[in-house]
Amino acid sequence: MNIVVTGSLAFDQIMLFPEAFSDHIMPDKLHVMSISFLVDHLHKNFGGVAGNISYNLGLLGKKPVCLSSAGKDAEDYKVFLEKNGVNTDFVTIIPDDYTGSFVVITDKKDCQIAGFYAGAMNSDKELSIVSTLRAINIDIEDSFAVIAPTTPEAMVKNVEEVQQNNIRYLYSPAQQIPRLAPDDLIKGIEGAEILIGNDYEIALLEKKTDLTKEQMLEKVKLVITTLGDRGSVIEQKDKEEIVVGIAKPQIVKDPTGSGDAYIAGFLAAYLDGKELVECGQYGATAAVYAIEEFGTTAHTYSLALFENRFKENFG
Hints:
The chain has a 9-stranded mixed sheet, sandwiched between helices. The protein has a 4-stranded mixed sheet with strand order 3-2-6-7. It has helices at residues 49-59, 75-83, 129-135, 152-164, 182-190, 199-209, 213-219, 258-271, 276-291, 303-314; strands at residues 2-6, 10-16, 41-47, 65-71, 91-94, 100-106, 112-117, 143-147, 168-171, 194-198, 222-226, 232-235, 242-244. It has a single domain (2-22, 41-314), classed as 3-Layer(aba) Sandwich (UDP-N-acetylmuramoyl-L-alanine:D-glutamate ligase). It has 10 helices and 13 strands. By secondary structure, the chain is α/β, with parallel strands linked by helices. The protein is globular and about 55 Å long. Helix 1 (49-59) packs across helix 8.
């Protein structure tokens, strides 16, 4: 099965604040808030959801196609992805802009404050999943798409394209839920094989679309809710939910990117035809590597190491 991953490419700057934001923010002064947090750690790395998911799929030997736009500063990023098993032939370089930039501060409670400059990502709406598959002579029946956050216009186009061409896909609107219109979110859900988000994102989807979890399960095969250090839940219509635990981390450095790693781990196992509980466990194993390093693509492993880690945690 050939996997095409859409979404953003970005350079991440991740900072850690050793205290809690809530101890320093005055709720009654939000309308005039001006505050600075003195951080004690800065890490810069390659990121963006398309890059993160593709990177983890590459580590798992799936050789995904990364379909995204990057700027004039992205050559090193392309080389990095290529060295780790990602097809970057369809990463479009925009010569007069910079690659997207994500800046985030994480506090000791894993709450985050972030900013994102789209840059070259604004050109993602010009990319085509179907044209990409045709260019590399891949049958639509032998392909699977990941629709992950990029500009709302690009995400809407990606949904329309996969639905019109009967391409199976995973839908992860995540950070773009607030910017996508309710009708667009509902359409993305309706045709998806897998809908995934963390507990906050799924709750926000329910609120914005007016769909209950039960109604979502009428429209998709699987709804996966990740719960951080409480594991994940996989749900299907009229079936008992599957609760998946976490893989034990050796050290917790940074949760950023663990959700993208989970998607890659789950999808790698799912497309190999493994049982759903095992797919969730693969996702959990991939995620634990991400939280053990600062940044979303700083971790690495061989397939043998991954399998050993999986067996150590899940038997």
